UniProtKB/TrEMBL annotation, chains A, B:
Gene Ontology BP terms: amino acid metabolic process; carboxylic acid metabolic process
Co-factor(s): pyridoxal 5'-phosphate
PANTHER family: GROUP II PYRIDOXAL-5-PHOSPHATE DECARBOXYLASE, MIP05841P
Record protein name field: Tyrosine decarboxylase 1-like isoform X1
Family recorded in the similarity comment: Belongs to the group II decarboxylase family.
Gene Ontology CC terms: cytoplasm
Keyword Transferase: no
UniProt entry keywords in alphabetical sequence: Decarboxylase, Lyase, Pyridoxal phosphate
Organism: Populus euphratica
Pfam families hit by this protein: Pyridoxal_deC
N6-(pyridoxal phosphate)lysine sites (modified residues): K307
Protein encoded by which gene: LOC105125654
PROSITE patterns (UniProt xref): DDC_GAD_HDC_YDC
């Protein structure tokens, strides 16, 4: 850009080049349906296309953009494609993108209030806004007592920080050598992030108890099983301290019964965390709010605005009732960060609510999503995806070669191709092959899971550009590839 | 934006609105010197300016931008201001900003290779590039055996993941109940992130040994002290397992002697981590590379490209020699993420090298910084800041009311106002008051530390817009406020 006397933040260079980048990105979205949804490159493809060291002299932006087009985009799996139905969605939106731009533009590091008061205060306010849209109990809001929300990077970090808060709360009572006795409960459908949090926090692996679920509860955790596990563990001298329930599991959107689980947790002095990373978004609609009934029993609640809420990655909203539990576990107070406002305890310093020290101005994008779209539009957005999932469910049900495996609750349909002649030995390979076949077309991208030993295909509606025609076309791909597979048997 | 039938990712809406945002951000940089560097708002200022719930109906972008101007920017501490000299810098640049835009535009979640092969592969390649610029030993590069680099969010996460890898490596040998015996070593100048990592990982607080430093070593860790501490601990049955050395401490840019520390670590089977979060950037210049001599003894090495290397926050580069140690500690393998490439172990899945599952396409911005600027410009950029710091050091030295407290090594000057009549009782309050006074002017922002009981002012050059005239003006502010303070005594 400049060969002599680098001016790395000249405002006119920024203007000129960023306008170019805007057009590049807008053109990407214009042409996004031309790319294979799942990248079809082979491992190691990029190393052959790029030099093996950084240049000594500057290159032009055009050079770089040409390389993005020719070398990077073929290796991208297009999460924003309207034909992306894998895992869970990771929404981009104009508002979310603008918020990311502004955050990157200001580029401050808001670890303490003083390092940018607006960043901390906007985060508190916007999480109160979102908490109200979700009708969270008031003690999760920052305006009431010791509660409040915080933006974590991911649901993994959210469950980790509350697990640590809960661990240290009990270790302060029992002494640190009690660590080996601490027990965590969740269903076997719980996200692997919980096990990872246990590994990190030093919970003994055999004390991370993932209770079995099956189709009789639609893969929800049974309160009876939980009660029994807790009393068994107490009787052998273990110390139950943490329960993670999920609203909308990753495999099949199972919904754990919060109210009865929460009462068990409370009776046993157990920290109760609710992971609604995916399905939390739906709860801004009155007709879906019932799925988090019982959240008033929880100590912490998490939903990912970066999944299905139009807020670019990363933005995982975590609310707690007792911020001090987080702070006692995660605070540091080095001399070089001391300042009047913090010492006087007049402010929130979010560094003490999270793993990292530094943090981006992520509330901007959530604020912009809420303001530029408004609640009613956001509700329509959710309902539209759920309707599209219902539509897909109907298509599957109408083709006798397939079955819908678990009842659809939100915008995920779990289904599979039935093995010919009810030969279940063949069913898993068949669906594995079908998954491979449809994803290899590049026309759609779906993913899978296993439930009760059966290999299941997951069709998750939720990309911001998805319309009915994309669902129709996806079903056609599935039918065609199924016909080809079944024909070749 | 649309009241009916929300189209949240329409490419033409994106284009139109993002062009407006570019101009808003470019105008911000054009006017950045008009803002107080340190925000002067009072705690709670923003809640009075914003409604207490999200709107039902959409608002216009212009409304939001007006609010950013009127309500948010007054609460921002302007890290990109040319008169920002606090903490350490957090560089923005045109290239870094463009990379952030592109990453937010593509908005993929690259936890596994398959979810966007380009994201994983570009990260490996670009960290090899940067590793070569730093002349890291080959076994840190991804092309050689089991090493490789990974982008973490922050240096806190970097030290945490390697601490966990080291912890679990030793616990696999000794059994998990050995946790209470594990000992970590570092100097008392080490970043508080290490203590936080120990808290998280369940290392007993009394086993996190921060060895005393003083001015006799310019606050570097003494190898003799370390040797003695290790043998004392071994003799009482403890298990030394982790050493963190720092190149460029946060207080005063102290440089721990890597070579001799590393040999002690190796002789004792201790994981040796080098934190060069700030000063690592300088090591791309041949004349500063000597400060990381001995890095060949390290197991892991970290530098923050988001500090002084023009890459927007967050981008913390971590290299390890043994990627399997990370993976064994941090991997999860749930069914819903299984895929051919991962199962065949043909690829790197960065989810297993970090705390979170999801991850942004952060290598794009580092790639763009390296390509759009090139090595020679980047070296000039570093040297220019170091020269400005030398210039400031000279100004301080020429005013007999002040003293430079520790020898300047990189671009940080540690100095203080001498207490009149050598009355040291008064020295700390005096400098505390001077800090408050200069920061309250809004003209500059500096921060402080304490060394050997003395309150010290830190002047860290490193913002991308800083020129000689800003350093001159900053010194004038310091002199004026010092005169006022001394006159009022």
């Amino acid at each position: 850009m400049e060969s002599k006397g680098l001016q790395p933040m000249d405002s006119e260079q920024l203007r000129e080049n960023a306008h170019k980048m805007v057009d590049f990105i807008a053109d990407y979205y214009k042409s996004i349906e031309n790319f294979p949804v799942l990248s079809q490159v082979e491992p190691g493809y990029l190393r052959e296309l790029l030099p093996d060291s950084a240049p000594n002299q500057p290159e032009t932006l055009q050079n770089v953009l040409d390389d993005v087009q020719a070398k990077i985009l073929p290796g991208v799996t297009h999460w924003q494609s309207p034909s992306y139905f894998a895992y869970y969605p990771s929404n981009s939106s104009v508002a979310g993108f603008l918020g990311e731009m502004l955050s990157a533009g200001i580029n401050m590091v808001g670890f303490s209030w003083i390092t940018s008061p607006a960043a901390t205060e906007l985060e508190m306010i916007v999480l109160d806004w979102l908490g109200k849209l979700l009708k969270l109990p008031e003690d999760f809001l920052s305006t009431a007592g010791q509660g409040g929300g915080v933006i974590q990077g991911t649901a993994s970090e959210a469950v980790l920080v509350v697990l640590l808060a809960a661990r240290d709360r009990v270790l302060r009572k029992l002494g640190k050598n009690a660590l080996e006795k601490l027990v965590v409960y969740a269903s076997d459908q719980t996200h692997s992030a919980l096990q990872k949090a246990c590994q990190i926090g030093g919970i003994h692996p055999e004390n991370c108890k993932l209770l079995k679920t099956d189709s009789s509860t639609n893969y929800a955790l049974s309160p009876n099983l939980l009660s029994k596990a807790i009393s068994d563990d107490i009787s052998t001298g273990l110390v139950p301290f943490f329960l993670c329930a999920t609203v909308g599991t990753t495999s099949s959107t199972a919904v754990d019964p919060l109210l009865s689980l929460g009462k068990i947790a409370k009776n046993n002095g157990i920290w109760f965390h609710v992971d609604a990373a995916y399905a939390g978004s739906a709860c801004i609609c009155p007709e879906y709010r019932c799925y988090i009934d019982g959240v008033e029993e929880a100590d912490s609640f998490n939903m990912n605005a970066h999944k299905w809420f139009l807020t670019n990655f990363d933005c995982s909203a975590l609310w707690v009732k007792d911020r001090n539990a987080l702070i006692q576990s995660l605070s540091t107070n080095p001399e070089f960060l001391k300042n009047k406002a913090s010492q006087a305890k007049m402010v929130v310093d979010y560094k003490d609510w999270q793993i990292p020290l530094g943090r981006r101005f992520r509330s901007l994008k959530l604020w912009m999503v809420l303001r530029l779209y408004g609640l009613e539009n956001l509700q329509c957005y959710i309902r539209n995806h759920i309707n599209l999932a219902k539509y897909f469910e109907g298509l599957v049900a109408a083709d006798s070669r397939f079955e819908v495996v678990t009842p659809r609750v939100f915008s995920l349909v779990c289904f599979r191709l039935l093995p010919p002649n009810n030969n279940e030995d063949h069913g898993n390979n068949l669906n594995h092959d079908l998954l491979d076949a449809v994803n290899s077309t590049g026309k759609i991208f779906i993913s899978h899971t296993v439930l009760s030993g059966k290999y299941i295909l997951r069709f998750a509606v939720g990309a911001p550009l998805t319309e009915e025609r994309h669902v129709t076309a996806a079903w056609k791909v599935l039918q065609d590839e199924a016909s080809a597979l079944l024909g070749s048997l």
